[in-house]
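Build the 3D complex.
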Amino acid sequence: MKKFDPATNIQFASALGDKRGVNPAICDSATFTFNKAKEMTDTFHGETEGMFLYSRHWNPSNLALCTALAAMEGTELAWATGSGMAAITCALLHEVKSGDHIVSSMTTYGGTFAFMNNYLKKFNVEVSFVNFQDLDAVKKAIRPNTKVLYTETMNNPLLRIANIPELSKIAHAAGAKLLVDNTFTPMIFSPYRLGADVVIYSMTKFVNGKNDCVAGAICGSAEYINSLIDVNDGTAMLLGPVLDPMRSTSILKNLSTLHIRMKQHGANAMYLAQRFKETGLKYNYPGLPEHPDYELFNSMKNEGYGYGGMISIDMGTADRASAIMEKMQELGVGYLAVSLGYFKTLFSNSGKSTSSEVPEELQREMGMSEGLIRFSVGLDNDIENTFNLIVEAINATK
Ligand SMILES: *Cc1c(COP(=O)(O)O)cnc(C)c1O
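Done.
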């Protein structure tokens, strides 16, 4: 059997445009016409092939992007949303009703945590936040009404790795689904192939990689995606957070360079990790054997895509972290900004930004230091120079 390779799968999933343009045409239409009235009725009921009804449901440009995303993930289908949060909230709401229960990793993206901790209360859905590194704790948190196990493959900002094969077994034994946010590690991990039921992306980050839009995706079986966009009770169809086709066309082109970018992000982050280690800085990178999940990472990864572009250093206090970040920006290391997966290096203090929705008490329980600087390492051609500038910023702020 040929090995599963996300980039090669995308290469062979591409569609030509009208008039044989090498990129699929942008289908700039909200609605679609039919020759026969019966075709419209049949399309409404999902009984036609290759026909489109209305762009909140499907659009040819979105389908071209989603075909490539599904190829990348090894799923049958995918559906593109207007943001990562739209993907997460639709996927979660689709699985639960009032009285149901979710077991979530306590380290998730701040918006995801806020949605589960605050917003889902409106619907009487309870969420238990558990340390997902402790599989026994996950098992113990499961109740008869547990419908979803939720985690990120590589979590934010501690870069711990979730054991997807084991979590999948635990979820399925309990009759629950495993939903996985793979935003930090596209191509590196293929969670669906490892047993997850649904894979979610914020395409705002690495997948698009240009920081020119917010977008998201939900990947899964054809049956699942079709239920999500069912005209009668599909959460995505009824809440309607569909991605605009112009944007999906632009993201599709960027998807074709994702493998090259992931390799470069990973190589640069690995270089920094090794130099941080030599320098004696308190760093965190899952690509070095000191990381507690190094073995797990290796057992789950697709070969050849590296260990990701995320790395963090702990500078002790928030004040120190702020001073260093300001200096790094001044020196041109990159930008003091939230988000990740951009071609330039971005850095932020997680506790004060992307995880600020997580109460400080829980941040400490997660093992987050207030002086943590999280880097999304860019595609820098001279990463040694970048390292020297980081050291300069650290020394200048002592
Ligand atoms: C950014 C991010 C999200 C939210 O995505 P948006 O596109 O900003 O809505 C969700 N999960 C993770 C891991 C993220 O980094």
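The mean pLDDT is 95.
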